[in-house]
Amino acid sequence: MIILNSVLEEQKKLKYKISKWFRDLRTIINKDLISTKRVKKYFFSGVIPPLVMLIVFTSFLQVSNPETYTVIVVDDDKSQYSGIMLNYVANISSDFAPWFSIIKIDTFDEAMALLQDFTYLGLIYIPSGFEANITSGIENQKGIIHLIVQNINNDYVKNYMQRLDEAVLTFNEDVHVSVGSVDLFAISLEKTYVIDQPVNNAKSITLGIIAMYGIICGMVFGALNIAKEYEDSTILEIANSPVRRTAYMASKQLIAVILGGLVILIFSILLFLIFHIEFRGDLFIVIISFILITWIHSGIGCLIGLKFKRTMPVILVCIVASMLLWFFTGGFAPLNMLGENVILVSRFIPATYWTEILVAETLYPSITYVLPRLLILIILSIIITLISWYLISKEGFRV
Amino acid sequence: MSESVLNNQNKQQELITIKNITKKYPNTVALEDISFNIRKGEIFCIIGPNGAGKSTIVKILTGQIKASKGEIRIHEFHTIKDRKKILGMFGLVPQEIALYNELTGRENLEFHGRLFNLSKQFMTQKIDELLTMAGLIDRQHDLVKTYSGGMKRRLQLIRALLHQPEIVVLDEPTLGVDVQSRNAIHKYILDLPSKGKTVVLTTNYMEEAERLADRLIILDTKIIDGPGRLLEIQERVFPNLIIEFKTERAMLKSEFLTIFLQDELKGKVISEKDMSERHVILQIIFDTTHIEEIFEKFIAYTKANDIPIEEFTIKRPNLEDVFIKLTGKEFRE
């Protein structure tokens, strides 16, 4: 009976502790939201520096788009019909679409390697047997053309695919194949998307920029929230109250996640309207990974806030940290262009995994690609949280 | 009453025990082997110049930092090991203004109340009461950033009282405050023991300590003197008496001064202030605490010799004088 009572007592205490923890969390979040609403300069300090970067980099992307897009052509058939088809392909580049050009490569393997080097827009492959199939007189046997592209959401790729569809249609209209009295289509186009590959084009970098923008906002908000408490000495009020340090840090990080999330939502809508990015993946995974990455960066922001304790130095440090983040996650230029060392460093930066998840979920959803990255984010968020809890205990938070 | 019973009673009264506290930083020693007790219901003052370690004691006392050596206990609770238990016992008024400027006065108090898990009904009632007491009820819905320095100090003081702590720790509570607000704050502090609170106050204003302290220590990294009542410390450190009076200038060269005051009573003129062509104010210090003896002899001599005396006062050296004598340096160095 005594044991049962003590167990019940312990349960009651635990229940009280948990509910107190959540009440404290809510109290601090409410207070911070009111503060942020009333003190606009802190909100704008969190939004404007990343916004400037966003504008600079998107402008950079606009001017960096190449003037022409080249498509690799591999003709394994080398027949009369494949020659005719290649003429149609060549004619895609016209007065109306002068930006497309073609380059002929001898072997399929060589062409794939080039495609994966991000140099070309796509690969048109005419396999051997193309002409034989067209002229076989068998109803279901057609000449097959393969189009392989890296990123179907790129506007130029879409445009090219549309034109290639038209070229195939024209070919079928011009080249009559009949079985008995029935006219058949001579060829068909098969489109293949190279998935599970890093992507290099303006749209994916734009996605990366939105991703980075959200997490940098999270980081700056996290850092500012802590630094402001120190600057106004209000940390003394909290450090000398029964609020647990875990609840305090969690509230600061959650505020940053909420504000960062709000900002990223607004900009995602804007960029969706401007860049017409089509979302193809799992929204749940994107939301979870966004929360994780903003949590990690708000944690990093809190550590910056704890170290510098003043808003101005904190903003400057966050800007420098953001520049490094941009660089090492492919914001300045595609990582594969920056060399192996940069790629190696990028593997140690959480933002890399978030950017990859977002790009993959938007362009080439693949659970096998996304899950390991999600796991890394979970582990990193736990590590950062534990570090921030440890460091805040050094600051007089002993509960 | 036997001595052991008295000792037990004194022990029961001791609320805070500070034992051999030393705090070292990499390049400096902030506190050196400090020991004293604070009794329940008293206003205990820690005075010392800037950098004397007053705020360090407050931080160690409230468990914000660990001492390098020694320990502090409140009742039987250790300030570091039992921090959770002691947090509610304290109401801390920090040296800095630690208020949320973008919240209203009332919102600041409500936030504090929620952190200390006060019920809504109690909180509303207590906040109204405290705001009225501090004269801030009319400004309760204004943002704190619009408050004057004195109003912020008052708000900070009542915030520390909201969760009904047993001990109120005030770290230089009137720093940079105008005289009017300082007087108001002094009044609240003097009222606290009657409400069952024990007050620990640090200050570098001598007059504040003189006005408020039941007992005090003089601190300059280590305890220079105390703990004790101000008068006890003054008598121990500076067992002198000063008399000040207005008399005629002619008296300066009379037997009254040279033979009676200086030779017979062993007095020494420490100040001579011209008031007019005819009058001067003299300050004479005596190396004794026997005030009645000096006073009787002085009155008898002046009456018998018809010596004109006006504005007669007896003074003791103030705390600042005591501090200078003890440390050999000015208080605000």
Which features would summarize this protein structure in a list?
heterodimer, A: 399 residues, five-stranded mixed β-sheet, two-stranded antiparallel sheet, 14 helices, B: six-stranded mixed β-sheet, four-stranded antiparallel β-sheet, 12 helices, elongated
What is the topology, as strand order, of the major beta sheet of chain A?
A: 2-1-3-4-7
Number of helices of chain A: 14
Oligomer: heterodimer
Amount of beta strand of chain B: 25-35%
Mean pLDDT of chain B: 86
Which pair of chains forms the biggest interface, and how many residues does each contribute?
A: A-B, 24 and 30 residues
Low-pLDDT windows of residues of chain B? 1-6
Q: Note poorly predicted spans of chain A.
A: 195-201
Q: What share of residues of chain A is helical?
A: 55-70%
Q: Please report the total strand number of chain B as a whole number.
A: 14
Distance between the termini of chain A: 32 Å
Biggest beta-sheet profile of chain B: 6 strands, mixed
* Cα shape of chain B: elongated
Task: Specify the number of helices of chain B.
Answer: 12
Question: What is the string of SSEs of chain B from the N terminus onward?
Answer: HEEEHEEHEHHHEHEHEEHEHEEHEH
Q: Can you count the beta strands of chain A? A: 7
